[in-house]
Amino acid sequence: MTIAINRKSQLIINENAVYHNINQERKLLDKDSELFMVVKANAYGHGAVKIAEIAKRAGATGFCVAVLDEAIELRKAGFIEPILVLGLTDVNLINLIQKYDISVTVSSIDWIKEANQLIKENNFKNKIKIHLALDTGMGRIGLQSAEEVKKFIGQFEKMNKLIDLEGVFTHFSTADSDDSSYFEYQRDHFFEMMNEIPNRPKYVHVANSATSLWHDLTGSNMIRFGIAGYGYNPSGNLIEPPFELKPAMSLISELVYVKKVPEGKSIGYGATYTTKNEEWIGTVPIGYADGIRRELKGFNVLVDGHYCEIVGRICMDQLMIRLPYDIIKGTTVTFIGENQGKSILMQDVADYCQTITHAIVCGFSERLPRIYQSN
Ligand SMILES: *Cc1c(COP(=O)(O)O)cnc(C)c1O
User: Fold this and answer.
1) Co-location of 107 and 226 in the same domain
2) Contact at 8 Å (CB) between 37 and 55?
3) Which residues contact 69 (CB under 8 A, 6 or more apart)?
4) Does residue 269 carry a catalytic annotation?
5) Is residue 182 one of the residues assigned to a domain?
6) 199 CB contacts (<8 Å, ≥6 apart)?
7) Does residue 328 belong to any structural domain of this protein?
8) For the chain, which has fewer Cβ within 10 Å, the N-terminal or C-terminal residue?
9) Crossing angle between the packed helical segments 181-194 and 146-157, to the nearest 10 degrees
10) 264 neighbors 277 (Cβ within 8 angstroms)
11) Residue 207 C-alpha to ligand 1 middle, in angstroms?
12) Active site annotation includes 40
């Protein structure tokens, strides 16, 4: 998609905020633990390469991504740190996996059997690094029982030494809840499965942001730090974080057209909004193709220090807002962030859309330029 650099709609990324969030978490970890910054989905929309650079400065010693292509992007940008692909990677991509020295998640015995075969056929010299996923209750990927782990290890030990069991991990599904019972169930299941692994791998990891902020790390030595690194509370507003999370992303645009509309005129597709009085209506060049979700109809933006309602349906590339008075064309419109002492939070937007901040930040499209600021 073309990046619209000649339009004033843009995402502004505060580099210091990202640094702060990662560095604060880094300080809470003990010396032997590592922080891998999760930069999947283009670093949750913040720009993977840029965020990886900041994370490294702030103390991250590795990265997690969702898919192999994201890992390769980081390698091509020059990162030499460990990179773990959290999703499952087709074993037939083993050439790329070894060429770029990427660590991959494994969830079955078949994968290592096939990999072993391919390693022999291709005469690989370098080790393939794998992290074994344990499904302790998330129900997504991973071995499900101690019995399966035992079989996996049995198979693994029979193989040539070109597969390196670099890590073992699990993922908690309720770490952002104020009820810890399911968390504890998963933790116990994790310990039970870990008992079947005789040699502790280099990395044992269990924590996403929520787990790392609010739970004991159950003997692990690496965390997979995602949403909190970008400054968003994984629990929404439910649980207070142990340090201040500074939101990294703002979104602004500008008024490109301002007009006085008589009472009783309709605005936008479907004519769903009708002016109640004579009203000042502003048009803003941003829409759902940029990631402004249609559910945000009726929500506010900030213009000249005033909350202004988004009126009528949000179009693909434009939307309309009701202004308190005639505000001059070219004035900044703040969707997320501060405007003359008032602010709109990413969390407010997520709440209004009945979703989580992860889904909002990932939803901003490539058309919006990402502008990095470090003051
Ligand atoms: C995405 C992901 C994370 C990061 O989660 P946050 O809630 O953003 O911290 C950690 N671990 C796994 C397995 C993931 O898929």
Assistant:
1) yes
2) yes
3) none
4) yes
5) yes
6) 165
7) yes
8) C
9) 30
10) no
11) 8
12) yes
